[in-house]
Amino acid sequence: MKVLLSFLVAAATAIVGALAAPSADGSEIQADTGTPSATGVHGGFYYFWQTDNQATAYYTNSNNGTYSLQWFGKQGNLIGGKGWNPGTADRVINYNGTYHPRGNSYLGVYGWTRNALTEYYIIESYGARNPSSHAKVKGKATCNGARYEILSTLRKDQPSIEGTATFEQFWSVRTPKKRIGRASRGTVDVACHFDAWKSAGMNVGSEYSFQIMATEGSFGSGSSRITVA
Q1: What is the arithmetic mean of pLDDT over 174-199?
Q2: What is the model's pTM?
Q3: Beta strand ranges found along the chain (DSSP E)
Q4: Of the listed 119, 124, 149, 168, which one is catalytic?
């Protein structure tokens, strides 16, 4: 999982146009293995959908900030969600919906910054395995009444939004995670997490790339339907 997201993000600029352009309204685009990778704007929100085409996976944009995702086959890697491009350091993100992972997966805020190049995650829930299990614990934080573990790791010569590069990954992981398999809602105060990271010596970049409420799946199956605002 720690390689997946960087790889798919780096591939996005190269493969989205080659695989398929979004439909006129940004809704689902079908192929033999599901929905081809695509990015764009739908319902006033930026959407990001990337898959390595190893799983059968379907991504669908619905009204406003809603998207749904289903994946099958217990193989491959994929990530999809809606949000903003560019992101900001002070956005308060509200979300609600359902999340049903079976295997490795997560639900949370995902984004990138430049200057310095940083990949970041604010994890609200996850499937079989904590996606930050490879990272180094740097501290704890309380945001919106929930407790999070703060972690970081250095990625050397890995794919990124700027091509192959060395960069840091920052994590906030809700502890305990939100329970899966039922309706879920919450609020993520991005500034609270960025401030907690800064206090731990973890500084995100000053230029913001996309920032989405994402569902990710890796070698498993599952479904989600999430509305972000």
Answers
A1: 96
A2: 0.89
A3: 38-42, 45-51, 56-61, 66-72, 77-84, 92-114, 118-126, 136-143, 146-158, 165-174, 183-189, 207-228
A4: 119
